[in-house]
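Thread: quick sanity check before group meeting

JM: Hey all, I'm pulling together slides for Thursday and realized we never actually wrote out the predicted structure for the chain we discussed last week. Dropping the sequence here so it's in one place. If anyone has concerns about the input, flag it before I start.
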Amino acid sequence: MIVERNQVVVSGSPEGQPIVFIHGFGCDQTMWRQVAPMFEDTFQVVTYDLTGMGKSDLAAYDMKRYAELEAHVIDLLSIMQELDLENVVLVGHSIGATIALLAANRAPERVASLVLVSPTPSFLDDPANGFGGGFSNADLAELITFLEVNHLGWSTRMAPTIAGQPAGEPSAEELTQSFCRTDPSIAQYFGRVTFFADERSAFEQAARPALILHCRNDALVPMQVADWMGARVPGATMKVLDTTGHAPHMTVPSDVVGAMRDYLAGA
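JM (edit): ok, ran it. Output follows.
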């Protein structure tokens, strides 16, 4: 059963509106521990580990199947179906935000709204169409090669950049350890899927309204991508957090909780 396979945890109010948290690349559900419990008073809170990450059943990670994000989308929808969740709020971070949006597009009848934390439809620049994702094809190829050649070195170097904190600071250290714990072969494969994904068309066809939380200084997702999403994603509410990094749910969790509460109260 997928509930056991993906370490699904249900907490909070059994009769409350379901809210499901989806983590990002190289992470697990514990990255939400400063945010998700803040909604247990009124929501039915669901967290889980993406297949191949955290304490999920690593044997279930079939590289052929997970060559596309769609497999993770099907996993999420399967969890929602198995738990019989409807009127769901999906909260995703980074590539987890993309998975949330794709799931809402595929099954809008189950989803009420989205909260996308540091999302991007594509990390890749597309100068011909005026889209600056932040990285050239060569940049991303080099990033993936570094990950393949030196998993621990990649983890140590990239975690502070993603956290927006110096090495040794709490969130940077937590991300470093999380990346290091990830199975290297899965990290390399999922890293390629993550960084080369291009879901611009899916974002432009978003089936459910979304709160988009973007850090003003994000080393992975430039402000122009946030502007693109604000202009192109139907029903989007853009909130720019005055902070640095790509993981505000870890570095400024109270700001994320406050923005989410305001949005969900209005929604």
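AS: nice. The first strand starts at residue 9 and ends at 12. The chain has one domain: 2-121+199-266.
JM: adding both to the slides.
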